[in-house]
Design a protein that fits this description.
Length: 199
């Protein structure tokens, strides 16, 4: 069985591929700020689920017979939600605020199989190194943190600046494999049903 991933994230696709699942990618056209505005005030863990649901439903509308997964991630620091940085200056400011501290990375997952829809959020605590201004400047200059929630990756250059993770590290990458397994079970599938490539 094929999994239709409603996300353009290379990290999510790579996570699935490493787990033996070759997803079909179909990017949603969801206006994320509009979806969040319509949802009203919601906690960060709920906000990512709202967006994951919107993305999955948008894609599923064009593929009604497919198994569709939508995901969205945000970093919560001091009660504030941090998605992708607006620009390099924003990324630098975020890193200055995050360094030497811990934050929670929330990743919402929404799965659709026919008439059945369900979702859940993976929340993982991430501890950041007390990086120097020079390291922050060099990292932001690579462009990597400009395209990801929280302005960091754990599976790329930013991995050197993460000192610890409490929870599912896959969730930090943007797709929790244990949570996906659980959701699949609730729609009558095993994750082994999706294995379609040799890892």
């Amino acid at each position: 069985m094929d999994l239709l991933l409603a996300s353009a994230s290379p990290a999510r696709r790579a996570t699935l591929r490493a787990a033996g699942i070759e997803p079909v990618v179909a990017v949603s056209a969801v206006d994320e700020p509009a979806v969040l505005a319509a949802a009203g005030p919601v906690a960060p863990a709920e906000a990512v689920l709202v967006l994951a649901r919107a993305k999955a439903r948008d894609v599923a509308a064009g593929y009604p017979d497919s198994l569709v997964l939508g995901c969205d991630s945000m970093l919560e620091l001091d009660g504030q939600v941090l998605g992708k940085p607006a620009d390099a200056a924003d990324a630098v400011e975020r890193w200055r605020a995050m360094r030497g501290r811990a934050a929670v990375l929330h990743t919402g997952h929404w799965l659709i199989r026919g008439e059945t829809q369900l979702g859940a959020t993976s929340s993982t605590t991430v501890r950041f190194a007390d990086v120097t201004d020079a390291e922050v400047t060099a990292y932001v200059a690579t462009g990597e943190p400009l395209h990801v929630a929280g302005a960091f990756t754990i599976d790329g250059l930013g991995g050197a600046f993460v000192t610890g993770v409490e929870g599912d590290h896959h969730g930090v990458i943007g797709l929790s494999l244990p949570l996906l397994r659980e959701l699949l079970g609730r729609v009558g599938l095993s994750i082994t049903d999706l294995w379609n490539r040799v890892s």
